[in-house]
Design goal:
Blueprint: E1 2-6, H1 11-23, E2 29-32, H2 50-65, E3 68-78, H3 99-109, E4 119-129, E5 135-146, E6 162-164, H4 177-183, H5 185-198
Parallel strand pairs: 1-2, 1-3
Antiparallel strand pairs: 3-4, 4-5, 5-6
Helix pairs in contact: 4-5
GO molecular function, one term: XTP diphosphatase activity
Family: Belongs to the HAM1 NTPase family.
Protein name: dITP/XTP pyrophosphatase
């Protein structure tokens, strides 16, 4: 059976990626996480775009393991903040800050923003790097707005403060996992990637 490595140390993101791939019926392809391969030094995400960071991670995994490697780089982009936090989403409140601190800082920065100034979107870029083969990038976006307060216990990252346009007034953290998968930025990026993953079998 062919194997693909998902180069993510985020357990919740890995579970989401695996769930989306399994639901899409990518049979005959074993999806491995970092815990399934020999440990290697994870690269610093020094890129200035989601595309650059996704490729950095996918290239490192393919080089270290010899396996086709899928990596995702994603973030939260607020229009009125010139697209920030963007690639800095995971460390918006500092390199060692967690999801809650990042959300609280964002809400504090936007506390006086009018509703029409709260437009935002999630962005996901998936990179697939095949040793001695192609490098493929796909991108998905999920449009909505920043809520005035966090709500919901599902998801991770900025999900509790994101009100997607297509979620009927609920935050991304209030959606059931399968519903979120069908709507999300990551689900859209992976949908574009599926034919390339299927070709690995």
């Amino acid at each position: 059976m062919a194997e693909v490595l998902v180069a993510s140390g985020n357990a919740k993101k890995l579970a989401e990626l695996r769930r989306i791939l399994e639901r899409a019926g990518v049979g005959g392809l074993a999806v491995l996480g970092l815990g399934d391969v020999a440990a290697y030094e994870l690269p610093a995400e020094t890129g200035t775009s989601f595309e650059e960071n996704a490729l950095i991670k996918a290239r490192a995994g393919a080089f270290a393991t010899g396996l086709a490697t899928l990596a995702d780089d994603s973030g939260f982009a607020v229009d009125s903040l010139c697209g920030m936090p963007g690639v800095l989403s995971a460390r918006w409140a500092g390199a060692r800050a967690g999801d809650e601190a990042n959300r609280e800082l964002l809400l504090e920065q936007m506390q006086d923003f009018a509703p029409d100034k709260r437009r935002a979107r999630f962005v996901s870029v998936c990179a697939l790097v095949v040793p001695d083969g192609p490098e493929i990038l796909t991108r998905g976006e999920w449009a909505g707005a920043v809520a005035e307060a966090a709500s919901g216990s599902g998801g991770f990252g900025y999900d509790p403060v994101f009100l997607p346009d297509d979620a009927r007034g609920r935050t991304a953290a209030q959606l059931e996992p399968l519903e979120k998968d069908a709507l999300s930025h990551r689900g859209r990026a992976l949908a574009e990637m599926l034919p390339h993953l299927a070709a690995l079998r």
